[in-house]
Amino acid sequence: MEETSSSSKVTVEYFDPYGVYQLLSPGLLPRLPLRNLHWNSHSGPLRSISTLHIDLQPSAQDIRPLSTLNPASASTSSLSRVKSEDSAASGDDGFRTQALSQPAGDRPASVSGPVKPVKERRHQIPGLRQTPYLKVFFLRCDDNDTYKNQARRQVREWIKDHTPPAQSTSKNTPQENHDAYEWLIIHVIVPNTAAATQPRTGGKSSEGGSSSISEKSGPRWRGGGSSTILEKLRADFNGTSKSAVDRVAQIRIGINDVPYDMLPRVVPAIPGSYSETPQENENAWLDLVSKLKSLILASFDGRVSQYEEDIREKDAQRSLPGWNFCTFFVLKEGLARGFENVGLVEDALVGYDELAVGLDAIIREQSSTGSSVARGGSFLPYTEDLKRRAEKARAAILRDMGAGDAAESDEPIDLQSTTKLSGNEDDEIPLNASKKRYRELILANDISIFDFRCYLFARQLSLLLRLANAWSSQEELLAKLKEQRESSLQGVAARLPASQPADDAEVLNVLGEICRRSMTFVSSISRIMREDISASFQASNATGDTQVEIIDPIMTQVVDNIVSSFTFGISQQILAQTSTKSLPIPPSTLAPPSSRIGLDGQEPKAAIPEPKTMMHPARSSSLALRSSSREPPSPGRFPGGRRSSVPEQGAASSPFLKAGLEQLAGHRAELYVLSRSILEQVGKERGWSSGWAEMEDLHSSGGGEMEDIDLNQEPATVEASTLSKIPPSSYGIENKLLQTAVDNKDDFYRLYETLTDKALRHFTVANHIQSVQSNMADLAILKYHLGDYAAAASYFYRMTPFYGEGGWAQVELSMLIMYAKCLRELQRKEEYVKVVLKLLSKSAMVEKERLQRKSSFQIGSKNTFSPEVLPTESYLSDLLEITKTLPHEVHVPLQNFFAHIEVDNTVRYHPEMDSFGLQLRLHYLLSESITIDKAKVKIVSLLGETSREIWLEMEGDTVFGKGMVKLAVKSNTLVPGTYIATQIILQSSNITLQYDHNSASVPCTKAGSFFRSPKLLIYHRTKAFDVRLFASRYMHLDRNRSLEIELLPGWNTVASGEIHVRAATAGLRVQTSETKLLVGSLEIFKKSEPGIVRFGAMEQQSRSRLVMPFNLEHEVGEISLKIEITYTTEKGVFFFATTPSVSISLPLGVNVQDVFKHKALFSKFTISSSTSSPIRLLSSRLEGSEVFGAEGGVPISKPLVVFPRQPATMLYKITKLRSLSKPEIGSRKGPKSSLSLVLNYTCIEEEIENAVTEDLSQFLEKKSLDSYARLMVPVVLAELRSHLSSYDFEKTAILNEISTSILSSINWRDHFSGLGREPESSKDTALVMEECLHSWVQQKSSISLAQVSIEDESMRNSRSIVIPVDIPSVTVVHTADFKLLDPPPAATNMVIAASNQPISASLDIKWTRIWDTEIPSETGAGSQNEYIEFFYEVSGASDTWLIGGRRKGHFRIPRIHQEHDTKAKLSFPVVLIPLREGFLPFPNVDIKPAHSLKHVGYAEDETPRLKRPVVTCETDYKNAGETLRVISDARKTTVSLDASGPQGGAWLLESERRSPGNGGIVLG
């Protein structure tokens, strides 16, 4: 176990009859203290003693030099021995009893022989003795003869007289074991003597201080003739057993270590003399040190064993009568001192701690029994010196009171002059174990509890300081080491290295423990001290009645002064003893530092004159630490249930590595706070306040102060307590620093400020955030109380937010009031505004809490603020005036002054104006009224991709008084949708009160949140300005599509306006610059920006429709526009925005099939519905062109319904009017050849929506709900679209009516939530609208569609589409026709042929070029390409026809069209043989252009200038629909049915064939 340095020492007594200690000490003292000792405890683990200090003391016996000594010996021993001053004052440290011994120099010089030592009378209590642990005999023997004749006898007598009886008797007494010690003989060899020439051992034995020789036969006291002196000593005085301890050591003094005048005469050289080497000399010293360690530990072990046995015995007798605690204390303290002597300070401290616990138990036991003469002994009822001090102070106060207004006498000075020096030192160091003879008083049972506790804690304090390696213990050790060095020769000692204590840093944990114990001790000793002085006063004024308590105001003041001075002195003493350079204290926060009281050695002194100041060293650092030690409560007035000792959670970890640094700083800060509390109490008696008491005057309502009265007192006693108070006095205050502070008010406040500052800086190092702020608050209150507003404001600025965030509401409010006054005095307007706003918000909080308690019926709940701390001064008017002078606005959260804000759920619309408004209810909390100049409310849309916001503003100004107030705001911006209010801004003077619901975090209460805003559904009234979007009713597929925007001003007379059009669909581009007026008389201004259309005046109830072209990057089915319109009327400027959508997909599809003929083209158009909704086709026509003409069949006489699965077909005949001619030079276009298909139609879905809209609008008008039509109709139509199926559409198209049963199960109320209530009936508007729609559905089971006809009115309302129809270009159209060479008779149209008979036919082919719409080219026609070649092929089914003749062939026609080509014809003979009977279709004829051959006539390196045109052809096969009847060729057949035929079958007897005609045609 590692131990730190200790100033306690082990006493070693030496007997030096030859005066050789002076020669030995230069080599011995540098090897002290002893280091690394290990003691094996009987009752615990192995204890390690790092350093053991030795107190070398001469014995009481003195031996003068003998006449028989040689001259060298005489000259050396005649020197006077320097006496150790340390041994002569062994009790000056207050921890040991002074040894009763007489120095050798004080005895008469006539004594010629050895003087028998006078044995010290043993005390019955072993703990009071101070005896050596080791006795040493310094022997000088220069040769063997001297040893034989004189030295042996002298050593034997010394051993007989000084060694313990344990070596001569078999058993030791307990008292002897308490003083157990060992002995040692040190043979000192002086140079130039015969002994110096001898080796340590004779013969061949090894040289060494610890070697032993084998014993020879012969007497014990005789050695061999050749033996050395060391061997003789060991043989004569060491034990004979194997376990005997070697008690002889030998040290040789070097010739350079002895002064010249002290050297003996030179001895003639002896042959074979011995010379010691430096290593052997060092080994001899190590052997001596080892013997010192082992012998001291042996004696210490014997003493501890005996002490422990006696303590166990005494402790076992605790319950017996007559047991005395004081005797037990002295005995156990002896063991503790023994531990302290050897450096086991922790074991010693444990002993004292156990004694402290035992003392507390005895005192409690005596207090419970009520008798001081109880088991354990008795204590004095009071302390005599405290009694004398109190009586003198009381007498001085009485003299002053008797002197009246006379000048102060010198008597108080005489009171302090009785103990002029020691008394003052005792007052500055009140805890001192050597101040009194405490141990003797304890043993004599003549000690009071106060003295007993002071002595016990002083001993604990001294041990803790040594454990902590404190600077006070080190200085004490240095002083004693210096005394010990000076006891040696001056010349030799001057060459020694200066002894220094171990360079170990202080143990900060132990220093912190000292401060912690001191706080506990002060709290208990102050109470004991008061009881002690009161007991002494009662004993001096005792009457017969012990039940009457004597009350003396003067004595009460004296007791307070004495206790305050004592406890203040203790705290200052502990602060001085625990100061360390390892504690980094931040710099002082006081300014200027030169005027502050310096309690640190690193800081300037105070202005208080010397010598009344007291300096305590400290160090400066700006670092902050965290500590886990407990923080003390603030001495100031901190209302509320929360303690200031709670450290801040989540603080930063300490950057220091030293253990205990934070604990030490925290406990030292507690001592500073304790000192300040004492100072504050003393100042309070003199009427000097630190400022906290005056805080109530800032808010008090004139009520008187409360006074504590003890209800158990008698009336006479109560009257005595109300006697006139005596003037304060400083008698009894003997601490210099406290005396200086109470001399005058300036010194009091200066010391109070300094102590607070030091506590704050120590708490900063300990990272006690709460305590730092509480001390800063104390400084702020003090500065405010003293009128230093600038310094007070700086403190308030730093610590006011801390108390607000920590929940110290009452403290924060009080400080805000003072802070505001400081800023007003300093004319710091901006800061004053901020502080007053915060102060007003706290006042509003009080009212809010009151309302919450009232609304929730909280009985017995605690209010954060008491009524007396609320500000009574008016701040609001002053605040508004000051803010007018500020260059910027002051923003304040709205919840600081208002308890609750609620937005009315009903939107208010103004008649005949396109505007709306909201009403808000606010609960204003301040008692002073406030004028609101501006007010704005922001509402934000809940739906849509982008959140649109609308600001509503107040008109004029309004005044808010305390309580519920209403605020109306309006806006001319109307954007239909669902909104919620999110932000409110109120402006008064230059103060802006605002609340943002998105960023605010107001906690919800049981009554609701601070801000309540329902959903607000803003709709578009029927007569308000409206904008509608339509897809253009006329569509031409070859041109840009258009959108139609319809403007309906409603009841507004518009002077001017502008429309902002933006695309809401990706890829959509609206060409606003090409806007045209389609319907109405609206003036459109030409100068317009992109996306903006400006227009002129519009009358009420008028209608205008604008057309805007648009294009798309990619096809979509629906497009949306963001339309914003701003228009001006005589009532103001209004804004309306909407995002309508319209479908641009075609509801129908058209397919065409062309059939080419020789002179005409037949086109069949198939018209179908592309959606699930049927369409109603009103008309269809194909318009011709310059080249082609078109003819239709029977026109549509009534609307034709086209279903998705039942398309309509229209057939048109197209003929060519004229040929295409070449375009003129410079013109790229020829005559128009494409046709146009024009369709007029309506969609059944549109008819349904129009019918439902018209019917519902009429119904709403009857129900007086027509203003909601624009809100309800879109909702009904949207639900109708989602519920209509394909079957419903087809049913509606057939029946021409729509059933409303599909709308009967819809919950309409959810669509209209947010409308609020009806202004007239106060009913829920959503419920009224739901009932209305249900009633409409019930009354209207079906709704008829509008009648549609082909008349002009229906045509105007229908949609039209123009589809361009291009005629495909065909190079050649062939007409193929099979003609039988032998045609049938004209009477019969049916051609009948015999099977398997050839039929002669001719294939006639003619062609035409009229359908070639390509413009002929001038080039490319040469001799080789004047014709176009084709080939034909006649094919039929192989089981039907056998075709012969020219079934395949090539032919060509001229490339250049000629007029006579249409009449030209080619014929090819073909033989047809039918293979089966029946109606057989004619074989197919396929005509295709022949592949063009390779060009000739060009060189290899040439290329054609033009590509050969592609040849296309179509074939008009006239026989495509004709059939040929084929029958058998047998006309008559005779068959025999007789079985006589071959194989028993029938016989063909005869067959007659038909007579064939020409070409295989059967004629009959």
Termini, distance in Å? 150 Å
How would you describe the oligomerization state of the chains in this entry?
A: single chain
- By helix and strand content, what is the structural category? alpha+beta
- How many beta-strand elements? 56
- Biggest sheet details: 6 strands, mixed
Give the strand order of the largest sheet, numbering strands 1, 2, ... along the chain.
2-3-1-4-5-6
SS summary, helix count: 32
Write down the overall mean pLDDT: 76
Low-confidence segments: 1-6, 63-124, 166-170, 204-225, 403-423, 487-502, 544-548, 593-657, 701-705, 714-724, 858-862, 1418-1423, ...
Strand content: 15-25%
Morphology: elongated
Radius of gyration: 65 Å
